[in-house]
Amino acid sequence: MYTINLSIEGRPISKKNSRQHVTTRDGRKFVLPSEAFREFEKRALVQLNSYRNIQLVGPYKVSYRFFMKGNLDADLDNL
Fold this sequence. Notes:
two-stranded antiparallel ribbon, 10% strand, 18% helix, alpha+beta
């Protein structure tokens, strides 16, 4: 099986924690991810842009590995 390693630097931020509830001028309501998540997403997408020309063919397996600095107690559901 062929292996491709993709790396994203930075501390992963949960999309679901600290969501912002917003009401538009016309009264519509929706929920936005936190500012911290949006910043993490921007940085991650810039880093992933270098991998955009990789073509995956056929079935493939995806696995994730997170490396956390220090003595952080991370909830795996939020990574």
